[in-house]
Design a protein that fits this description.
The protein is an alpha+beta fold and 193 residues long. The chain has helices at 2-27, 181-186, and strands at residues 39-42, 45-51, 54-61, 63-67, 74-77, 79-84, 90-96, 98-101, 107-118, 123-132, 137-147, 153-162, 168-177. It has one domain: Sandwich (lipopolysaccharide transport protein A fold).
Length: 193
Amino acid sequence: MGHRTIPVLFLIIVLLIAAQCSRKKDTLPLSSGSIMTPYQEFGTTTIFFYEGKYKRWKLESNYMKKPLTDTGTMLVTPVKLTLYDSLGKARTKVLADSGITTSTLQSFTVWGNVYIRNQDSLIVKTPKLWWIKGTHKVESDTYVQIETPKGDIMRGKGLDAVEDFSHFTFKSQVSGQFPDFKRRVEANDDRIY
């Protein structure tokens, strides 16, 4: 009787172990087939960029994603970018819903409620624009609105500007409002804004 109980008990234990093993195989997580390149994700992040000992910009964001194979390319949401002049003084603030940079940091593209304010209180609003390091230019192919400290509002589709917005041109569909324009022209005010 004792010998018969051991094989039956052994058989029950083997069946229980096999049942447990088969359940674990069904619940193992599998990596997604859609992930082509490994990447890193960051929560609240601040990045500084220096040229030599001079701070050129500071990027703050709630979310950042970058591929492991390319340390320069970054997707950022939202964008809070501060640009500094050669003396380390903040000269331009850029806010946007999202942004991306190239791997060599040669250009930045921002989109979604883009808002820029420079040190002269010039305000730029647009759905999308990009900055190109090599030419020190800012461009857009969408509608752009520029507001000056004197209350001038200029709009157009497409923009070509130097990075500090001291000079800019619209490509098409230009319109604007210029309060006190006649008085300013008669007073020989050589700066429109």
